[in-house]
Amino acid sequence: MARLADYFVVVGYDLDKRGGVEGQGRILQRFPEKDWEDNPFPQGIELFCQPSGWELVPERQPATFFVAVLTDINSERHYCACFTFWECLDNPQLPKAEASEADEDEESGAVQPAQVFAPKSLVLVSRLDHTEVFRNCLGLIYTVHADSLSVPLETVIGNLLTCVIPIAGGSQRTITLGAGDRQVIQTPINDSLPVSGSSVAQLFRQLGIVNVLYLFCAALTEHKILFLSSSYQRLTDACRGLLAIMFPLKYSFTYVPILPGKLLEVLSTPTPFIIGVNSFFRSETQELLDVIIADLDGGTVTMPECVHISLLPEPLLQQTQTAISMVLDPELEIADNAFPPSSMQPSALKIQDKEIRGIFLWLFARLFQGYRWCLHIIRIHPEPVIRFHKAAFLGQRALSEDDFLMKVLDGMAFAGFVSERGPPYRATDLFDDLIANQVERVRQEEACPQKVMNHVKELAEQLFKNENPYPVVAMHKVQRPSEGSAGQDAPGQQRPPFPPLDDVTVQLFIDHAAAKLKSAPPVVKAEMKGMVPSGPPLGDVVDRNVLANSARRLEVVRNCITYIFDNKMLEAKKLMPAVLRALKGRTARVCLTQELNQHVLQNRAVLDDQQFDYVVRMMNCTLQDCSHMDEHGIAAALLPLVTAFCRKLGAGITQFAYSCVQEHMVWTNMQFWEAMFYSDVQNHIRALYLETEEGEQHGNSEPQEAPGGARSAIGALELASEQSRLWPTLCKDMQSERVQKEESTVFSQAIHYANRMSYLLLPLDTSKNRLLRSSGLGDVESVSNSYVTNSIAGSMAESYDTESGFEDAESSDVANSVVRFINRFVDKVCNESGVTNEHLKALHTMIPDIVQMHIETLDAVHRESKRLPPIQKPKLLRPTLLPGEEFVMDGMRVHLISDGRDEATGVMGGPPLLPAEGAIFLTTYRLIFKGTPTDPLVGEQLVTRSFPIASLTKEKRISVSIPMDQFIQEGLQLRSCTFQLMKVAFDEEVASDLAEVFRKHMHKLRYPQHVHGTFAFTVGQSAKMVVEHKAKDKNQSLKTLSKNLVKTAKRTIGRQYVTRKKYAPPTWENRSSLQSELDEDEISVSEEPDQSSLTLSSTMRSSDRQTMSNVVERACCRDYQRLGLGTLSNSLTRSKNEPFRISTVNRMYTVCRSYPGLLIVPQSIPDSTLQRICRCYRQNRFPVVCWRNSRTKAVLLRSAGLHAKGVVGFFKSPNAPTAVPSQADSTSLEQEKYLQAIISSMPSYSESGGRNTLSGFTSTHMSTSDSSDKLRQPKIGALMKQVMGSKEDTPGTFSRGGKWGSIRGSGRLSAYNPDVGNRLAGKESPQPNGGPGEALFLRQQRAYLYIIGDKGQLKGGKQDSFQQWEVVPIEVCDVRQVKNSFKKLMKACVPSSPSPDPSMSFHRCLEDSEWMSLLHRVLQVSVLVVELLNSGSSVMVSLEDGWDVTTQVVSLVQLLSDPYYRTLDGFRLLVEKEWLSFGHRFSHRGAQTLASQSSGFTPVFLQFLDCVHQIHLQFPMEFEFSQFYLKFLAYHYVSNRFRTFLLDSDYERIELGVLYEEKGERKNPQVCKSLWDYVERLNKKTPVFYNYMFSPEDEEVLRPYSFISNLKVWDFYTEETLSEGPSFDWELVRGRAECPPDDAPPDRPDGGTTTAPKSQRRVVWPCYTNRCKVEPDAISKLLQDVQSLEAELGQASDRWKDTWDKMKATQRSEAKLESRPSFSSSLLMSSNLSHQRRSQGVYLQESGVGSSINLALDCQASAASTPVPGRPSTSTLYSQFQSSESENRSYEGILYKRGALLKPWKPRWFVLDKTKHQLRYYESRQDKECKGVIELAEVESVVPGTPAMGAPKNIEDKAFFDLKTTKRVYNFCAQDGLNAQLWMDSVQSCLSDA
């Protein structure tokens, strides 16, 4: 029972204190005067009566009523019902005002009223919340006063204060206050359920569903919430509603539904709150930064930016929202129905209110289901102490990641929930019932909203019943004040003020009632206590598909453990990787702990070293994936095991597993230890009360420690409930005995745990302070992980012994931090579980001793563990080195981790070769990893990965976790531009400073100070020099130059010239002695004809002449001579009319540093002009000739782009009058003269009389092209249009059907100069068949010289229509683009990790890199230039600085146009001439030295090689070199193994003396300094660089397709050979596995076979095996066989090339004899194949007859019909014929054969077979079935015939011939006479052979 009202207070306006700005209230009277003992009077009531402040008002206002809530110091809530009315006062300010009325009026501007009204409040303070009752009571008191009823007020108030009602129980109590009134008070049935009236529904009405849910989550996750409204009662209701939906959680922070304005500063408190404030103060609330403001009147909720609210987890949130909307707005569901049901009104507010609360109850039941299974009861007597195991709860609900639930469980409200609802023996309520009995139902129905609503309605009914158990009784009778007194005053009517009451009378009432209560018998209400049911246990949340997998995995784990304990170590080792993978899953981890448990006997399991090692490894792996909260209880289950497994180290020294599993976060987490401790205590206390089963239980209690493990949990809570029930019946002694027993149980556990914690927190080597740093948590990664097992730890620890002086200090530091940690733990758990103070003190003294003792034992263990033999790690394999290559750092043990490439990891099938364990070596040349895969199944394989140190492009530190060992290791990721990536993790034995040294050395080697530091120069010197290379002094280059010139001179004089024969130009071969070269004028250099012929010797000092002779010997000179661009003969024989000459103007590299010494310029231009012209061009790279088309005599020039100043003059028309030529003008004039001189050198120009007339063009065009050429001429205009981007959409087409892509600059078509375009394009559409319009060629005007220029530079020039040159502006890719594109290409081909985004596939990344489109652009420009040159126009390529794109284009053009460059020698010459001599900046672009490090790696040359590779793929028969040759160059141009590709120009090479010393005698014959020499030597030994399909066409011009769809990714980017590393350092590769294992001997001829033949099969693994070695192509195999046979026969074996050439020669002579191409040698040698595209498919097939090369070519039957002797049609190569008999076709073609009598002539396909000696014929060429055979044996003669009747028309007479056989005469008709003659000869030769 409780008082209805504790205090009655009258509060009025304080007239005395009104001086300030605001008025104040004061308590006029309060009853009772004395405070109740159980309930002191709350302070500050006067503030709450007028929350907006006390003010006087001019008019009477209606009375108001609201309930404020005050919370006292014991967090009890007091409800203050305030009834406020207004009383009239004489205006207290008037007397003042009268004195100075005039001023007052002027100031205030308003007449002060004579009367004002002051507020007066009647306040009732109660602990019960009966709003309506309070409203009625206070209203009655006011009515008695206002209507002056006959009842004394004292009586009414006395009755009110003495009224006592029950708190709960559902009874109705009728009360009367003695004023003729009657009220029924309804108590709720259950006190614990909140009473909400209709406040919840009201709240949702005001704010909406989503907003309230936000507030709900905010309140639960402890945010600050502020309600605003202009109504006080609504504020109270809203707050009450919010608390009601939080049930069963109780809000435990600041709760002030109505906050007075004076206390607004409360809002800036740091703690969470729910507060209501009048909207009057809205502006003050604006600057609150972290408060969520809900405006009830406006229906908005405002969230500050800094506040993040965790919402309910999905799908709960969605389901809750749906359910609430079904309650509030049931019509929503059927709003769209065509026939809506008639009645879908929402329920009444009161009912709605309960339905919404029902939904929230249902929500909490889902959130907290099974919470009782995670309670730990740690004391039962005297009071139950309960703890909640949060981690286990989250783990079992699989919600450990959920933010909302984490915050709720950590919150104060939930702590209150546990302490209130935890005890197992107490009264239960609706929520307990829901959790216990309805969880299953909730779970099944959650997906179906209708069922959920039914359940919610049932809950709502119970909630409604709780508040209104009986039907409403209309027994209320409360008088209200009459109209007059309640409303506004009638004029003149004066109402008496509220009288002071007689406190004595009231006090008498109170005392009287108190005495009555004392004498009355106490009301004993039996409390309904009972055991709280726990509900169904938490089912583990598991995916179905996981279950299927886990069974297999568990099997693996079980087997492995069995193997370990049965000592089958090999088996265990094989299973280990699978086990470690399986242990990622939770079920496997649980299984592991259970399995290990079975091997523990009497708390101990002694293992040998290897077993120990494996067990520890598995434990570590299990723990590695546990979070620090250990939500699955894995660490908890392992805790007893790590103190059970051990191994003996020596006499009396045992090492336990815990010393090896300390590296995990979970051990440093205080919450984990508490949960463990409580769960253990619970088990022991349970054992304490289960005396009956005590005996067997003790042995068992340890293993059952899994927190919330089912059996123990049921037992403990049931037991506790039983004990609590019995407690009151026990006698005092029994009670105290039990309390004492429990307390000592907890105490003994605390000691046990202090020990356990010291085990896991003290490191084995206590000199290293590592686990508990200042943060109190271990920093996992910073540890050097030397604890896998102690044997490793031992090997590691040696290095720390040097510091032993400081060891004590440090270890004591470790000890202190551990002691502090354990003390904190002990304090917390002991206080919570009520351990006595003496015991606590004892613990505190004990802990340091425990720790110290443990440190001592550990020291002994540590000492012993050092003595263990180290674990057998794989031996470090040393790599083989090149001659001259030396180690800089010896091998460091590392793991090679797999990167984003799948092949090696076994994902794509095949064995997992990575990760591999081995060592990384740094040599002067390479970075090498060599090791073995960690997977035991492929453990015997070797894995090698290496790349040249010079190709390193990026190095970054990473931290890696290796699957085998559980620790995070520091590692490096090294990326190389040879498309290799090494991800290595350093082994724990590698000290981190060593890794740092490694990085420093690597950087030094990668970026030497000077090019002298690169491997090509340091090779053979000691590695020390490399590392300590210092920068040389300033004048070094000059010294070197002079030194080298002298050296070279001496060497050359003393040298015999024979060796140089290969390089010498042919005209010098007749020279007798070398001496003359130095004295006489041998080299003539053509100058202008009118100048006196200056000889070379007279133009240079004698010291330069030696160099000069070398210059002449350079590649370009030989090439110029081959091209007939400038001869090097005596001045007498030099022809004067040659258009070009070799100029020596640049011999000292003064005109242009980056050009070669000798340049080809027009004959007519003097050197002085060149020196002026060169200023117009960037880098002084003026236009020079580099190639001439031997047929059209058009020349190809190269230069850099123009400087800006030259552009204007460049476009001025030549006949524009210039008044006074300025410097710039004269230069540009000379420039024009220069271009004109080039044009006049062309024969087509001179022939056409110097003007580009139509006739002139036609004649030259016709004269230079034979009929076959005509077919191949492209339609140049359309082509140009394509390249420059055309306005018309007609793609240029070729007769061969190729379509041209367009060069796009940054994604859009380039604009072009319409004038050029039209002139080139001729505005014709292509012919319908796609061939070029022949007439078009004759019609269009053509420029003699096209200048391919950069679009950006060529803006704004006016072009003259008569000018003979024309500018083709194109957009080129700049160097930055290439650099970025290459980076992306590398990432695509060699990703560093598997891409998480499935859309970023390899092809997608490749496309993003835009590498292919760059290739497309270069190829396209090149083909354009080829076409222009081929059609007789000269072309000048003048792009960027003339050394990147220009070089690419010029080289490709020459390669496509001139077959010589497609040979090995020619390609070498091309690269030497265009790339090396013309100064492509290899060192700069390759970032080879420190100086160029910042510029980054830009693979311009690689791009060129890729283009060559694309052309090679399309024309496989045109190149003498193989694809391997291109890869070889691509690898070695960045490797710095040779000096060939070092430095940026010839000038620099001469300066360093690199250029010519290569040719001198070598000190070390092993070390090749020039790549070319190396290739030459290697080519003599092995055909690896040779392309067997090489059979070039005479003067074939190649026109490759350049569309991206035609380009293939170069396999150089993606392939890898892990067995031996890259195959480009031949010495390293050929060492191993060269000869295949001996083949099994063949069956003996006599039929008996030898013993079991060895299998000839070999396993070929992708990315591991070197394919070309294991599966050589047929020809290499045959050559190998020939060699081995020769060796067996003891003959001196020929070189492969000689053998090959012999084969070709015999085949050729045979072909000549038979005058037809043949396949007899089974090798394709015919060098005159038609020039169809030959990429259609070339296969080396193994067929029955040995290997034959089949060329499946698609060509039209028409093309096949005419076998021409010079050019046999491609049909000669066809090989679709595959009949059962293997056939040989010596000659074949179409002949008309006359049928039998009266039958017509029919064309048939005839095949002459020399082998079978027959002539067969078929219906058509494709036909497989032979129509007939003429046996040649029966042929008597073959003679010319005569045309017979019905013969084909239009065929000459000579085409007929007859074949006489013994049986009949066959009449044949060929295509023409020539063809007929060929057939007759062929048949004749067969006859004569026979």
Describe what this molecule looks like in 3D.
The structure is a single chain. The protein has 1890 residues and is α+β, with helices and mostly antiparallel strands. The strands form 13 sheets. The protein has a 7-stranded antiparallel beta sheet. Strands 43-42-41-40-46-45-44 form a 7-stranded antiparallel beta sheet, covered by helices on one side. A 5-stranded antiparallel beta sheet has the order 3-2-6-5-4.
Estimated share of beta-strand residues: 5-15%
Instruction: Give a short account of the largest sheet.
Output: 7 strands, antiparallel
Give the number of DSSP strands. Answer: 46
Query: Total number of helical segments?
Result: 65
- Give the radius of gyration: 51 Å
Topology (SSEs and partners):
Elements lengths: L1 E2 L3 E7 L11 E7 L13 H5 L14 E8 L5 E14 L3 H6 L1 H8 L6 E12 L4 H16 L6 H10 L1 E2 L6 E4 L7 E4 L12 H9 L1 H12 L3 E6 L2 H15 L7 E3 L16 E6 L3 H4 L5 E5 L4 E3 L13 H13 L2 H4 L14 H20 L6 E5 L5 E4 L1 H8 L5 H8 L1 H10 L3 E2 L3 H8 L1 H7 L3 H19 L15 H4 L16 H17 L10 E2 L12 H22 L3 H14 L3 H13 L6 E3 L1 H16 L9 H9 L2 E6 L2 E4 L13 H20 L4 H8 L8 H17 L5 H30 L28 H8 L9 H26 L4 H31 L19 E11 L18 E8 L2 E8 L9 E6 L3 E10 L6 E9 L3 E7 L5 H15 L8 H4 L4 H5 L8 H18 L21 H5 L16 H4 L2 H12 L1 H9 L16 E4 L15 E4 L4 H7 L10 E5 L6 E5 L4 H8 L11 H18 L2 H5 L6 H11 L2 H6 L3 H9 L19 E2 ...
Helix pairs in contact: 4-5, 5-20, 6-7, 6-8, 6-12, 10-12, 12-18, 21-22, 21-23, 22-24, 23-25, 26-27, 26-28, 26-29, 29-31, 29-32, 30-32, 31-32, 36-39, 42-43, 47-48, 47-52, 50-51, 52-53, 52-56, 53-54, 53-56, 56-57
